[in-house]
Amino acid sequence: MAGIASKATLVALTVSVALLAGCGQRGGGASGTRAPLDAFTAEQIYKRGEFELENSQRPKEAVYYFSEVERLYPYSDWAKRALIMEAYSYHKARNYEEARGAARRFIDSYPGDDDEAYAKYLLALSYYDQIDDVGRDQGLTFQALQALREVIEQYPDSEYARSAILKFDLSFDHLAAKEMEIGRFYLKGGHYTAAINRFRVVVEEYQTTTHTPEALLRLVEAYLALGLTDEAQTAGAILGHNFQSSPFYGDAFAQLRGRGLAPQARGKSWLTDVYRQVIQGRWL
Fold it and tell me: Residue ranges of the Outer membrane lipoprotein BamD-like domain (predicted)?
């Protein structure tokens, strides 16, 4: 009997989805006037949203059904489920601002819920997936880092933590890449002090990224151009100690040797502080 009841329920839902398809398309399809959904249950409307999301490749249409569940059945468990799916559907449609809004509503409405980790992960993704669209304004990258950090720190054992860690590292690398891009621009134009300031940020704040070896090479070049040989030699020493196999070190070594210099810590500057802390392990 239980099996027959389950089959009956499945048939009923299938019929409901088919009926909802007709309602959704009445009056000109997704862009036309839709028939009201008041006669359908929360589950039926929710299933129609799932169907649109999985089969029709129309995430914006799925949003409509999920939002209707929220509107018609605001205090039901289906409304809670619909809200997280609404955030996901907006993100899939690349409507990132709307995805953030839905994710935040879920977090505010259902604190401590089992899906809160996923809502915060979606919030972080809505920033992260826009990073490549940003020019030199890194506001979204910083917001992505902050949101990803929350997922990592608050839900370290969740299925989203590992992905968040990877994306955090890539976002961090992206910030360093932007500093390098601007630094190279200044260096090429002969604005050596401005270039040094950018490369210094990479060495001091983004030292775990892949851009540190090149930043140290460019510091050698910039300091040599300014005649500040102590700083150039110290940058070369740090590069040689930490990245001796890097081609950037070979280039820096050749430039120093061409001036009769060697990579070694000399003088007193922010670079000698880095050398003392990172290489000698002395922080005072």
Answer: 41-235
Q: Is the pTM of this model over 0.85?
A: no
Name the token pair of 215.
Answer: 């930043």
| Distance separating alpha carbons of residues 64 and 171, to the nearest angstrom | 32
Q: Is 120 within 8 Å of 107 (Cβ atoms)?
A: yes
Helices (H), the chain: 2-25, 42-51, 59-72, 77-92, 96-109, 116-128, 139-154, 161-188, 192-205, 212-226, 229-242, 247-258, 270-274
Query: How many domains, in total, are found in the chain?
Result: 2
Q: What is the mean pLDDT of residues 58-69?
A: 92
pLDDT for 282 = 55
Task: For residue 202, tell me if it sits in a domain.
Answer: yes
Instruction: Considering only CA atoms, give the Rg of the chain.
Output: 28
Domain boundary among 113, 142, 170: 113
Q: End-to-end CA distance of the chain, in Å?
A: 78
Task: State which of 80, 113, 146 marks the end of a domain.
Answer: 113
- pLDDT the model gives residue 6: 44
Residue-number span of the structural domain to which 56 is assigned: 10-113
- Residue 33: DSSP 8-state: P
Residue 48 in domain: yes
User: Quick one: pLDDT band at residue 49, thresholds 50, 70, 90?
Assistant: very high
pLDDT of residue 12: 41
